TrEMBL record:
It is an enzyme of class 3 (hydrolase). The keyword Lyase does not apply. Its cofactor is Mn(2+). This is Serine/threonine-protein phosphatase. Keywords: Hydrolase, Manganese, Metal-binding, Repeat, Signal. Belongs to the PPP phosphatase family. It catalyses: O-phospho-L-threonyl-[protein] + H2O = L-threonyl-[protein] + phosphate. Its EC number is 3.1.3.16. Residues 222-227 form the Serine/threonine specific protein phosphatases domain. The keyword Metal-binding applies. Residues 422-448 are annotated as: Disordered. The lineage of its organism: Eukaryota, Sar, Alveolata, Dinophyceae, Prorocentrales. Residues 1-33 form the signal peptide.
Length: 448
């Protein structure tokens, strides 16, 4: 058993130090090929080692269950090849009268609207079609990049949509009445967190897939922190997939999530990312965990220089987020802006940074950008001009049926060569009596 490489704490920060070591040792076991393989570091990082969350029995049990389930899922052959073989054997039930999928060319406006109407009636798309669409979306995403560059020519617009989180009835209202369905004249960028929490994550995701298949160059995706295995096994998506289809299907969804772009630059002016921007360099975890948060902010900077868009573009995105193996992915999927200058700690999970207005400004200036547009945080108005160089847009109204927030989308228009976001707000909609979190571990509809 390798010894933890961390030095003892220099001051009294014992609980945080312990958390750091637990996660670091898990990663060390991972790198040496010992212990329980691929999910353990991430699962412990998320739920098993957080000093504020504690190591609750249910969370630990859920993490272990997720680990075992996912291990089993990954133990077999190539998930894509398996899914392709499975599709051949699946049949569509005789009484089915909804949209029929026969390749990307079969998706038109009537298909998308018919799919959404069917989902609102709480009917299912046949599993055969769900697999086929997911495989075809994966093919498209494999041809995309870590950093997508989307032109927004003078006189045109693109709408950026924040977190959705499986809130199908709010999502349908947004599509029908707020942002409109996608087309070459109405491009849409969905900025992550499509699934988890809300109990219609499957339906939201398949609708997004249908729109992507119909308009692959007018519908864009960025990955959110909830497009990952460690959150899907904690916050309901995997349970929902197991109940509505089969757990095996998670393997293919996870493969799609790993191929999602991480960020999108609009017309070389606006950097759109789910959560945050590159963290400090060097990352200085040792000093971090031995200091109080306010002190830590002062010692973290980018001595190594600003990260360039070319460096981001060259980063391998096809990973599960892990602070040791893919730190930039963690920054993009988990970070948050903060009020004071400098980097600081995140209250969400260990080994995630927050960034001050000076950090955002330096990143923008180094890359010739005007603004960072991100999501990831609930805002009461649905949007917020969080910092001079960083705005937030969040598109899940009354988040988790409790937050009471409005939602918004960002309509980014190019006028005379200058991009500017305008925010369109909307309210939450009535929905059937299925609560947020229904399919999460211990939720009322969780698989037995
Ligand atoms: Mn998020």
């Amino acid at each position: 058993m390798p010894r933890c490489r961390h030095a003892p704490p220099r001051r009294s920060a014992a609980p945080i130090r312990l958390a750091c070591c637990a996660a670091a040792c898990a990663a060390l076991h991972w790198s040496l090929g010992q212990g329980p393989a691929w999910l353990a570091p991430a699962a412990r990082w998320l739920v098993g080692s957080h000093p504020q969350r504690g190591v609750g029995t249910s969370a630990a049990a859920a993490a272990e269950r997720g680990r075992l389930v996912a291990l089993a899922a990954r133990g077999g052959a190539d998930p894509v090849a398996e899914a392709r073989a499975k599709v051949q054997a699946l049949t569509v039930e005789a009484g089915y009268s909804g949209p029929a999928y026969n390749g990307p060319a079969s998706v038109n406006d009537a298909f998308v609207k018919g799919l959404l109407a069917m989902f609102k009636e709480q009917k299912k798309l046949p599993m055969k079609y769900a697999y086929m669409m997911t495989l075809d979306v994966l093919d498209i995403l494999k041809g995309e990049k870590t950093l997508q560059r989307v032109p927004v020519p003078d006189g045109s617009k693109i709408t950026v949509i924040g977190d959705i989180h499986g809130q199908l009835f709010d999502f349908a209202h947004m599509m029908e009445n707020v942002c409109g369905f996608p087309s070459p004249q109405n491009p849409l960028l969905f900025n992550g967190d499509f699934v988890d929490r809300g109990p219609w994550s499957v339906e939201v995701l398949l609708t997004l897939f249908a729109m992507k298949l119909q308009h692959p160059t007018s519908v864009h995706f960025n990955r959110g922190n909830h497009e990952s295995e460690m959150t899907n096994y904690q916050y309901g998506f995997s349970g929902e997939v197991q109940v509505k289809y089969e757990l095996k299907m998670m393997e293919l969804f996870s493969e799609v999530f790993r191929h999602l772009p991480l960020a999108t630059v609009l017309e070389n002016q606006i950097f759109v990312v789910h959560a945050g921007i590159p963290g400090p360099d060097p990352r200085q975890w040792e000093d971090w965990f031995s200091k109080a948060p306010d002190e830590a902010a002062g010692i973290l900077s980018r001595e190594g220089g600003q990260m360039t868009l070319a460096q981001i573009e060259a980063t391998d995105r096809v990973v599960e987020p892990n602070p040791f193996e893919s730190p930039l992915v963690i920054d993009f999927l988990w970070g948050d802006p903060k009020g004071a200058n400098g980097y600081g700690p995140s209250g969400r999970v260990p080994m995630v940074y927050t960034f001050g207005p000076d950090i955002a400004q330096k990143f923008c200036e180094a890359n010739g950008l005007k603004l960072i547009l991100r999501s990831h945080e609930t805002k009461s108005a649905g949007f917020q001009e969080t910092q001079p160089f960083c705005h937030t847009v969040f598109s899940a109204p009354n988040y988790i049926d409790k937050a009471g927030n409005k939602a918004a989308v960002a309509v980014v228009t190019n006028t005379g060569g200058v991009l500017k976001p305008d925010y369109k707000q909307f309210d939450h909609q009535p929905h059937p009596d299925v609560p947020s979190g229904a399919y999460a571990p211990n939720g009322p509809l969780a698989p037995k």
